[in-house]
């Protein structure tokens, strides 16, 4: 009786928490660049501020996971992180110089990025404890992202982009309140197995996979960093920007559900080839259009690009990497998809956008997606010598 009595409130709290924290993700990825632009920063400066996040996340995730392991608590660490976000948001709200904001946003990212892996840790443990699927909790993050993308856009269109940090404080405060109702979990975030890195790097197929992921990630992160700036340049208000983010986040939900049920019926590499082609098509269309409303429609392709890629890539990783090195492989995937690519696309992307304009910027993003597509396709059509040998042996036995 006790587990069932705890199940509903804890899972409900986790769903509410997942829903809420993705509101801060919307702010950081979508509306922080508008806040920087409102302060008069150039596109290259905005690119630098964006690139700081992925760089800091490498250090922050490691340090806070060590703290979580040492003190055997996730909930208390989460509270510290959210309080840190609130304090740093307030300091950002009263800062105006680029050097000061670069310093404060670095500290903000230190408290911001670890929230998501810690949240996944609690959610996975809670789902297992109560015999539920992790997707039944995680999908509320996608719903929350869609909700806040629209609501925040309308709120900022009324109160102004200069009030972005006050909205950040409000959402982080709500998340902090919800945290009080979550059962603590002593399980730490999975650590990177250093001995497993060499074992992984010796696998040619994995190296090929990570290389393709990195190229595709550069194009995706370029879009993430400068989509809002692009929309603003095309005359879009905060509410239109919200609709663009709503379109992408809502579109991924049915794809996630479909592939989680039927994904095993399709081979991985053809799906990755298709997703890369859709990414390239997206960025080509953005480079050609001159309408902010057309970009909203283009954002619906997020389901067939990111949605298919993400589910399929995770599935391929679980197949290629042994269980004992799974955490290491996931850490390397995160570095390729989020951290290293975000650092490169933010710094260099800002310079490209400022010097060459939106059209060339997105054509370059399209090129990286095509390189990834060619890489996946080459791997798919390339027949490994060992596979050919096994087939020839099989044929000879039949003869």
From TrEMBL:
CC per GO annotation: plasma membrane
List the membrane topology term(s).
Multi-pass membrane protein
First and last residue of the signal peptide = none
Where in or outside the cell is it found? Answer: Cell inner membrane
Keyword set includes tRNA-binding: no
Q: Which UniProt keywords apply?
A: Cell inner membrane, Cell membrane, Membrane, Transmembrane, Transmembrane helix, Transport
Q: Which residues form the Major facilitator superfamily (MFS) profile domain?
A: 172-399
Q: Which InterPro entries match?
A: MFS_assoc_dom (IPR024989), MFS_dom (IPR020846), MFS_trans_sf (IPR036259)
> Cell inner membrane: is it a keyword of this entry?
yes
Give the Gene Ontology MF terms in alphabetical order: lactose binding; lactose:proton symporter activity
Q: What is its main location?
A: membrane
Residues that span the membrane, as ranges = 16-36, 48-67, 74-92, 98-116, 137-159, 165-184, 205-222, 242-262, 269-286, 292-318, 330-353, 359-381
Q: Would you say which domain of life the source belongs to?
A: Bacteria
PANTHER family, A to Z: 3-PHENYLPROPIONIC ACID TRANSPORTER-RELATED (PTHR23522:SF10), BLL5896 PROTEIN (PTHR23522)
What is this protein called in UniProt? MFS transporter
């Amino acid at each position: 009786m006790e587990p069932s009595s705890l199940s509903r409130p804890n899972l409900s709290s986790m769903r509410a928490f997942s829903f809420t924290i993705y509101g801060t993700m919307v702010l950081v990825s979508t509306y922080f660049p508008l806040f920087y632009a409102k302060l008069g920063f150039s596109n290259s400066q905005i690119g630098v501020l964006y690139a700081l996040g992925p760089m800091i996340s490498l250090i922050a995730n490691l340090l806070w996971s060590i703290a979580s392991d040492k003190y055997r608590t996730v909930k208390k660490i989460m509270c510290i992180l959210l309080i840190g976000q609130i304090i740093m948001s307030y300091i950002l709200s009263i800062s105006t110089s680029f050097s000061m904001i670069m310093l404060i946003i670095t500290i903000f990212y230190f408290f911001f990025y670890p929230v998501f892996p810690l949240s996944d840790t609690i959610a996975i443990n809670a789902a297992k404890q109560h015999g539920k699927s992790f997707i039944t909790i995680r999908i509320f993050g996608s719903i929350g992202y869609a909700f806040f993308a629209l609501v925040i856009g309308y709120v900022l269109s009324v109160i102004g982009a200069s009030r972005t940090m006050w909205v950040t404080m409000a959402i982080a405060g709500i998340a902090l309140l919800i945290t009080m109702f979550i059962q603590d979990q002593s399980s730490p975030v999975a650590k990177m197995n250093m001995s497993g890195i060499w074992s992984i790097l010796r696998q040619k197929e994995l190296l090929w996979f990570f290389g393709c992921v990195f190229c595709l990630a550069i194009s995706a992160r370029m879009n993430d960093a400068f989509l809002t700036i692009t929309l603003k340049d095309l005359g879009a208000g905060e509410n239109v920007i919200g609709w663009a983010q709503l379109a992408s986040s809502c579109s991924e939900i049915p794809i996630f559900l479909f592939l989680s049920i039927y994904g095993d019926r399709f081979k991985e590499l053809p799906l990755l080839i298709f997703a890369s082609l859709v990414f390239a098509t997206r960025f080509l269309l953005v480079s050609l259009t001159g309408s902010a409303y057309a970009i909203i429609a283009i954002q619906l392709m997020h389901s067939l690009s990111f949605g298919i890629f993400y589910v399929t890539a995770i599935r391929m990783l679980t197949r290629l990497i042994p269980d004992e090195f799974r955490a290491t492989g996931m850490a390397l995937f995160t570095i390729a998809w989020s951290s290293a690519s975000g650092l490169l696309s933010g710094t260099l992307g800002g310079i490209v956008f400022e010097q060459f304009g939106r059209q060339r910027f997105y054509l370059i993003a399209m090129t990286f997606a095509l390189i990834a597509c060619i890489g996946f396709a080459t791997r798919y059509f390339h027949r490994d010598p060992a596979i050919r040998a096994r087939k020839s042996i099989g044929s000879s036995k039949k003869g």
